[in-house]
Amino acid sequence: MFCSKSASNLPLAGLLARLAQHPHKPPVPSIFLTNARSIVELELLLEYNNMIRDCCVIIITESWLHPLIPDAAVQLTGRSLHRYDRNTDSGKSRGGGLCIYTHNKWCSNSRISFTHCCPDIEAISIMCRPFYLPREITVVVITAVYIPPDANVSVALSLLYDTINKQMKAHPEGVFIVAGDFNKACLKTVLPRFVQYVQCPTRGDNTLDHVYSNLKQAYKAVPLPHLDTSDHLSLLLAPSFTTLRRKNKPETKKITTWPAARLFPEHRVVTVLCTAQPDLNLRRGIKAAKVEYRRRVESYLEDNNSRRAHQLQGEDTSHIHIPVWEEKPKDQKGCYCAHRPATPINANF
């Protein structure tokens, strides 16, 4: 679907070209991460940049929003907004704030699962169930993080560790993406299995903005110009994840099937009788054989002999005593003669 060969081996230009062909059906969401300080220029950027306009997820740190700004003022066309503004628990009166936009063509089923604000960290997590997901992935959990420069790093990372650990226990087959402005912190100190995909500097010579995921070879980061008055470079995360369907070759398995005559012995009896005695009235014989077969199974079950009842299907039925009634003979006038008694027939086959 998204790619015909391993996407992790493709160059960056190939990943961007394939992302442009199927922008809303990647195996993992494409991400645009920016430290905005203003959302006005973001609307202009989405209008003229096709790659960012079709991005599945937009994460904004330091949105500088507050409760007096309504959602309608910062709503983007065709996207769902999840915001968490800085409050008094942070100990600061302005700045901060986090926003996550999800494209409605990628996912219309997203909700906020976690929020936290304190002097050491601001975080918001959303849970998404996109329209298209590989079979090995059940849910996508995206966490936006802002850790101030003067924060206690150990406290912030401890909170992130507890939150992500609970999410991974609840969804062991999910994809977990943690992105934002980490400043001095490094998530790999508490979650060493997570991979950090941003290797280029984002502010001067320092890499302050990080993107982590529990998937290996999931993204390739592309630096973009900063927005408005921000002093951080923006980042585009192009998906390079290869699904198991593309990675593993199909296997050929041998399946043993059993013929119907072996599973249902009465079928074999009927077939042989129809061939050997075509002139007999077989309907009554078939009914009597089924009644006898059911009686034997029920008798074993009543005696709590389930093993014998199960083995009854595999028994040799070459000698079964089946009562078969012959048709009444007719005289020369076409009338039936006196009723003949039933004659049991031993079906030996």
From TrEMBL:
Residues 44-232 form the Endonuclease/exonuclease/phosphatase domain. Coiled coil: none annotated. One of its GO terms (molecular function) is catalytic activity. Pfam families: Exo_endo_phos. This is Endonuclease/exonuclease/phosphatase domain-containing protein. It comes from Merluccius polli (Benguela hake).
